Amino acid sequence: MQAKQKILAVFLAAACTAAASLTVLAATEHWNDASKSPADTTATYLSDKTAWTSWVSNWDNTKVKYEQVALTPGADETQMNFGWYSRINTAAIVKLSTTPNMANAVTFTGSCEPGTVLGGTQYYSSKVTATGLKADTTYYYQANVNGVTKPAESFRTGNSDSFSMLLVGDPQIGASVGQTASTDSSAQTAELAARNDSFNWNKTLNSALASHSDIDFILSAGDQINEYVKDGSAAKLQEQEYEYAGFLSAKALRSLPIATTIGNHDSLTTGYRNHFNNPNSFVEEQNPTKAGNGYYFSYGNALFVVLNSNNYNCADHKALIEKAVKSDPDAKWRIVMFHQDIYGTGLDHSDSDGIILRTQLTPIFDSYDIDVVLQGHDHTYSRSYQLSGDGKEHASYDKSVDLDNAAVKSSFLTDNLCYNIVGTQQGTVTNPAGTVYFSTNSSTGSKFYELIPTQQNYIAARSQTWKPSYSVLRVEGNTFSIDTYDAETGKCLDANYTIVKTR
Question: What per-residue confidence (pLDDT) applies to 18?
Answer without folding.
Answer: 36
